[in-house]
Specification:
single chain; 29% strand; alpha/beta; 6-stranded mixed sheet
Length: 225
């Protein structure tokens, strides 16, 4: 299993009390699966993604990625694990404005001290259709082009697991469809495991399985399609 989540809780302080964001969440994801996490706004989807990525720590329970207990690792070790296993695609693109498309796509590889960082980033940008835009800064790219750079950056590290948080949320419908088609195609080519947070039921249906959250609880784990 690439992901093992067991009895996961997340509490946050709220005024004089404690608010439970996630309650007793358990599920497993096998290598190569595509899983959609769906639910209303405030149901805990993005919090769950942050816990899977080791960007946040659970109040109780366990998250294991490729057999490693994420919450047992210190911050540096979690960062190393993310660099080694994970790719990310966000709604807001999360590109660094002072870096070109090539520099953005190469950044995670350079942080890993990969000597082929630029070469690999250039190849991935060509794969997403941006071979002629390598030296452009984010402000000179359309929203769809920025998300293509984000896809190139995510897949450049050859991740075992891709985490995508509302990847079409800032795009118009036609551009969003193009990005999703590209993401699924690249995911199949790489054999990557995909966990996709979305409110779009049609998009969720393209995944092999759906995990539905309601008020911080896992209410359904259904086959997609």
């Amino acid at each position: 299993m690439i992901i093992e989540v067991e009895n996961l809780d997340k509490d946050v302080r709220s005024g004089d009390g404690t608010l439970t964001i996630l309650h007793d969440i358990s599920f497993h994801v096998g290598a190569g699966e595509a899983v959609a996490v769906v639910g209303a706004s405030g149901s805990g989807k993005s919090t769950l993604l942050s816990l899977l990525a080791g960007l946040d720590t659970p109040s109780r329970g366990h998250v294991r990625l490729a057999g490693e207990e994420v919450s047992a690792l210190n911050e540096d070790a979690r960062a190393e694990l993310r660099g080694r296993l994970l790719g990310f695609v966000f709604q807001s693109f999360q590109l660094l404005p002072a870096l070109t498309a090539l520099e953005n796509a190469a950044l995670p590889l350079e942080l890993m001290a990969r000597t082929d960082a630029r070469e690999q980033a250039r190849a991935m940008l060509a794969r997403v259709g941006l071979a002629q835009r390598l030296d452009h800064y984010p402000k000179h790219l359309s929203g769809g082009e920025q998300q293509r750079v984000a896809l190139a950056r995510a897949f450049a590290v050859q991740p075992k697991l891709l985490l995508a948080d509302e990847p079409t949320g800032n795009l118009d419908a036609a551009t969003g469809d193009e990005i999703i088609d590209l993401m699924f195609a690249m995911n199949r080519e790489a054999g990557t495991t995909l966990v996709l947070v979305t409110h779009d039921e049609a998009l969720a249906a393209r995944c092999g399985r759906r995990l539905r959250l309601a008020a911080g609880r896992l209410t359904d784990s259904a086959i997609g399609g």
